[in-house]
Design a protein that fits this description.
The protein has about 150 residues and is an alpha/beta fold. The chain contains 5 helices and 7 strands; from the N terminus they run E-H-E-H-E-E-H-E-H-E-E-H.
Length: about 150
């Protein structure tokens, strides 16, 4: 069964709601195993076992969370050649701006040569019903791509 790894940093109630919506989106796709790891504890073994990855982070001071950056720093060299073409998607939640975080993630995933299978999702403020539906759709799209 294909495995979708969700690597996330979820320090707030808003991001917890987003993570729950992502779980629901993956659950809509049969025959996909969901594996969740907080970004600070996810590592190369988790990534190498996955058939795809969904990344979630807050935008902190115009950048991805330090936790997600730590994940990338941890997996970059051990997984560089082994994960080429890995399907991925990403959501970023910020108070008002997510552009810097999305650009940094695109740069790193580009260097890893991963394959973006869904448009990145930028969320600002408290997630509304439509935002949570967009997260479900993102998660389901990445799961289906496996």
């Amino acid at each position: 069964m294909p495995q979708l790894l969700v690597v996330h940093h979820t320090p707030s109630p808003n991001l917890q709601a987003v993570l729950e919506a992502a779980r629901e989106g993956v659950a809509m796709v049969e025959e996909v195993e969901l594996v969740e790891r907080p970004a600070l504890s996810a590592g190369p073994a988790d990534l190498l076992a996955a058939d795809g990855v969904l990344l979630g982070t807050p935008a902190n001071i115009g950048y991805m969370s330090g936790a997600l950056k730590h994940f990338f720093d941890t997996v970059y060299y051990p997984c560089l050649d082994a994960t080429v073409g890995l399907p991925y998607g990403v959501w970023v939640h910020g108070g008002d701006d997510t552009a810097g975080a999305l650009k940094a993630i695109a740069t790193i995933t580009g260097a890893l040569r991963w394959k973006q299978v869904a448009a990145p999702l930028s969320l600002t403020g408290a997630p509304a019903k439509d935002d949570l539906e967009a997260v479900r759709e993102l998660a389901a799209t990445v799961a289906v791509s496996l």
